[in-house]
Amino acid sequence: MTRKPFALSAYLAFARGRPATPMPPAPSRPEGPLLWAHADSAEAARALSALAVRMQSQRPEITLLLTHPPGMAVPAGAPDRIVLPLPVDSLANAQAFADHWGPDLGLWTGQLLAPALLARTSAIGTRMIHLGARNEIWTTPAPLWVPDCTGAALTLFDRIFAEDSAALRRLRRLGLSDSRLRSAGPLSETAPPLDCPPALHEELAQALSGRPVWLAAKIRADEASDILRAHRRATRLAHRLLLVLVPATAEDGVAIAGTASASDLRIASWESGDMPDENCQVLLTADAADLGLWYRLAPIVFLGGSLRAGHGGEDPLEAAAHGAALLYGPNVRRHLSAYTRLVDAGAARIVRDFDTLATAVSQLIAPDRAAAMAHAGWDVVSQGAALTDEVIALIFQWLDGDGGDGAGEAA
């Protein structure tokens, strides 16, 4: 039996004195492989849930157990996942967790570690992966008088995926060997492109050939007037410009249809069977059912739920995956990290109101500008997809009994 590092032993002695935390009754452990994923944020919870859905599409016998810090709101996800708050990191809680759940594999996010829990699950054979390690200080829930055990706790992970080279260097300074480290970019929610009927896409692409098109996607009712005003202004410089307006919900669609009909713009209704001719200025849809089609036809996309406070914005990676220059409003708290990455890459631009939206659309009508932003967005999405693919391949390899390389050192 390998001797534990002194710092980890000291932490475990401290954790032994912590009492078990009263927790609500846990559901029974499902049969079959159990994937335990710990999310340190709502964005990580969405990304981990999406990753699990990808895995379950190939291996439906896998169950996801998603844990999170107490008090964190967890976004809605697949109904068959189990969601629980993570208990205080004590030896009693760690033992109870390992005895009840016995996870086959574990995914961890965030710079705050739970050494007692990680040590106990490692001892029962759980293979652990850390995703999205950042160039930030690692912490544990221990008082200052307990020796720092972050380096020893990190050796409990079989594989650590770092966001960038700076995070990788920090991990090496903590004594981690290159055999367990990878530089793979940040963890992000990834999804395959939305469905689109090829024949319909080809028909519309031919009908719109030569016309500049922009898409306002998942628009809320209270944003519609600003979108239409921005389009009216943009058409002064590009009179053939077409706006495809896609409401977030059918309820929004009803209200938006009323706003559009009261404008002086020439409207066509997709659900009524109208095809956009040369006189059409706005193609109005009832809901987001055909969003995959519109993403493919429009090189410029404004993402709704962002101009007005209270909605939190929409996932920009979905649109970026289809190859579009992205515009968005200032209220995107639900997906702030993803928008920040896209802005830093030059793939997205913020607008504040209908005036700045009109200006941005007018500038991006130039094909080379929109293409440069779309390419930058595709690079960001591809990086996240590559990480997801590698993690899934590694998990399947371990589930199949192949230890692979980079197995964790005993701690």
TrEMBL record:
One Pfam family here: Glycos_transf_N
Pathway: Bacterial outer membrane biogenesis; LPS core biosynthesis
GO molecular function terms attached to this record: Kdo transferase activity
Domain of life of the source: Bacteria
GO BP of this protein: lipid A biosynthetic process; lipopolysaccharide core region biosynthetic process
Subcellular location: Cell membrane
InterPro entries, per the entry: Glycos_transf_N (IPR007507), Glycos_transf_N_sf (IPR038107), Kdotransferase (IPR039901)
Annotated 3-deoxy-D-manno-octulosonic-acid transferase N-terminal domain residues: 29-186
EC numbers, comma separated: 2.4.99.12
KW RNA-binding (keyword) present: no
Spans traversing the lipid bilayer: none
Keyword tags: Cell membrane, Glycosyltransferase, Lipopolysaccharide biosynthesis, Membrane, Transferase
Gene Ontology CC terms, in alphabetical order: plasma membrane
The reaction(s) this protein catalyses: lipid IVA (E. coli) + CMP-3-deoxy-beta-D-manno-octulosonate = alpha-Kdo-(2->6)-lipid IVA (E. coli) + CMP + H(+)
Function: Involved in lipopolysaccharide (LPS) biosynthesis. Catalyzes the transfer of 3-deoxy-D-manno-octulosonate (Kdo) residue(s) from CMP-Kdo to lipid IV(A), the tetraacyldisaccharide-1,4'-bisphosphate precursor of lipid A.
The family this protein is said to belong to: Belongs to the glycosyltransferase group 1 family.
Protein name as it appears in the record: 3-deoxy-D-manno-octulosonic acid transferase
